Amino acid sequence: MNPINTLRRRVLTALATSPLALALPAADAAVGSLEIDTRIERAPRFALLLGNSRYPSPYDLPPVPKNVTDLREALEQRGFSTTTVIDQRADVVRSAITQFGTMLRSQPRDCIALVYFTGHGLQERSENLLVGADADLEVARKEPELSIRLSKHVIEQLPARPEGLSIAIIDACRTSLKLVRETTEGLNQVEAPEGWLISYSTGAGRPAIAPAVPDKRTFYTDSLVRLLASVDNATSFSELFQLVKLDVNQTMLNHPIKAIQVVAQDPFTTENLRSRVRVSPPREALPPPATAEEEEALWQRIEDSLWAADVVRLCDDYLKRFQNGALVSRVRVARVGAERAAAVLRRNDVRLYRSAFQPAADSQLAAEVYKAARGDKDAAMRLGRLELRKDGGRYEGWMQYAAGLGNGIASYELSRYYAELDQSLLAARYEARALELGYTPPARLGNERK
Predict the structure, then answer these.
(1) Is 350 left (phi over 0), alpha (psi -120 to 50) or beta?
(2) Which of 50, 266, 315, 383 could staple 335 via S-S, CB 3.0–4.6 A?
(3) Is 147 within 8 Å of 92 (Cβ atoms)?
(4) Residue closest to 306 by CA, chosen among 280, 263, 337
(5) Residue 93: CB partners within 8 Å, gap ≥ 6?
């Protein structure tokens, strides 16, 4: 049996429910910058905030109540109706999530739903577990009823709403610097379903650090609260979490305590969104201030660019000419992503070139190319899968690019691709890379860690 056909069938399964699977040529190609969806922005917004601080000593987490209280206030300022659940066992938390999902099913399908968890998290057999209050961490590994499963009890409990926006935020942390330095285990990478944005307080396979006092927030939630309160109304949720990532990393790298610098967190986000949704509902009575004609023209050139190096150059031009411009936050986010993308594309082991980043006729495909050009590792993986489906020659390049951007799932899929081609060295390299990126392959694939 042809190994390429075997892998292609596997990818077809993953693409079966994706709009990319139906991508057909149209008359004109387009640049796929995501359009603002004011319909979602005007829809109701709901947030369920879960926090567990109460664990057996020395694993208690004093900052958790402040995390929840302060984030609730910040979200309410952005139009969210909030529900909080503090220091409850896993069964109570699961029940609260089920009730939240039931409530969402009675709301418009384009509403915004957000679930936030702060407490202890761990990974068991490649599955992400959010530990309930009072549970011993080691016992929780063996007794799944003591935890909330991220996929089964959170993501799958909320109604599937590709046309809406669902957000999961996981700030799983520990107070001991020693434990954080010594552990090699955190939460696993997951792939966001369509309509979802999932953000972790630190990179896959690494825990986050939390202060051991009740009057301070964790590093991640502190950045999230501050930026929710300060970003301009034009900032999208996707851009917000990219700004949080930068802020957390820089705050910790510049911390006066050397030990905190050493364990600086690198927040991880995976998303699969159809449109841009801004953090604040639009205000009809207060139209946005007029943007200077030259500034708007330069921003449009940035939006139209699909080659990372060009995006970086144009962003630098904007930031030099419009230091106090209305779009500075968006330009900074675009530049950071494009700079990382450009660095990966310069690598000798990534065979993906400018010709791959072209306007596409299908709007969904165009949006994926636009996101990939700005360093979106998940969009790059989806484009790679699509290439395999249509017998394209860029599958390896897109998956190499996605792996270079930090997508452990793409790296693992590429390792299986090479294994089926009997290219054992490349297969071993990309499987090792997937593990380095914090991805643990499911045990059912025969790759359970011993």
Answers:
(1) beta
(2) 315
(3) no
(4) 337
(5) 50, 52, 85, 130, 132, 148
For 47, the enclosing helix (H) or strand (E) is strand 45-51
For tokens 């107070």, the residue is 175
* Strand blocks (E) in 54-164: 80-86, 112-119, 121-124, 127-131, 147-149
Q: What is the pTM of this model?
A: 0.75
Is the separation of the CB atoms in 107 and 158 below 8 Å? no
pLDDT tens-digit map of 283-297: 654 445 545 788 999
Taking a C-beta distance cutoff of 8 angstroms, is the pair 34, 274 a contact? yes
> Tokens 């402040």 belong to which residue?
66
Cα-flanking dihedrals φ and ψ of residue 434, to 5°?
A: -60, -45
Q: If you search the block for the tokens 């449109």, which residue do you land on?
A: 275
d(Cα 1, Cα 220) in Å, to the nearest integer? 49
For residues 322-335, give the mean pLDDT. Answer: 90
Burial of 52 (0-12, 13-18, 19+ CB in 10 A): buried
31, 304 contact by CB (below 8 A):
yes
Determine the average pLDDT of the residues in 323-351: 93
